[in-house]
Amino acid sequence: MTTSIAKLQEIYNQQGFLSALPVLDETELREARRAFSELEEEFGEEYTQYSLHNVHLQYPWVKDLTKHPQILPVVKAIIGPDVILLDSRFICKYPTVKPKHQENEEGETKPDVEENELPYVAWHQDMRYWGIAGGPVLSVWLALDDSLKENGALQVIPGSHCAGMLPHRQAVRPGNMLSVNQEIPEELVQADEAVICPLLAGQMSVHDGFLVHASDANMSQRRRCGFVIRYVPTCAYPIQDPNRPRKFHATELACGADQFKHFSNKTA
Ligand SMILES: O=C(O)CCC(=O)C(=O)O
């Protein structure tokens, strides 16, 4: 890392996120992409888009990513030495302009999905659906492909993690990839302050559970695949909140020691 851990901590506390931190070297990246393409082949793109959830339980290469030596030092610097791996998910936006576009009778090409229904992620805060108290939730977004404006990179509102929880509602526009289809109403989002977090394949961004973030549809011909890993300090605990009914079946100690055992029964 070129920036010191102390500096990263300072920036994270102020902005609520860090971006473009190097993680995978060339060989590791090649291997991760090869392994992911096997999952694509096995499950198909519709599934791998958003349903590879907590597959670190099944695939050692995915588990290794959650404990990567370039990731954990950053996570520990921010949330402390004792860390629980809370959850993981691949989020993959496939190109919208693909050969499967078919000519209609007039000889025009038409996408399978209308442009305003393409998969995107609405403005939201992760804490709105993670029923966790007693400590922060930190998300790592590890890029397996270059993740840029044109293929729907993550966008964040710097400093928005300091405003506490904002109201969410059911998303108005179709295509929201989030499992419970939540969004912050647009009048509450300072979208003019949004910044894109462009990542090269192998880099990661890191964001706080209260940071307001989103991502646009992939309007390019290039896949945008990311692996999202959520971590909490061991002092955090699951709460019974009917508005945030998330279960935590796939947790384990990522590093340090767990004197609390809040997640040991794997349910919330
Ligand atoms: O991958 C995306 O576009 C959104 C990811 C996200 O919302 C998250 O990591 O919390």
From TrEMBL:
SUPFAM superfamilies: Clavaminate synthase-like (SSF51197). It holds the Pfam family PhyH. InterPro entries: Phytyl_CoA_dOase-like (IPR008775). Its cofactor is Fe cation. This is Zgc:174917. It comes from Labrus bergylta (ballan wrasse).
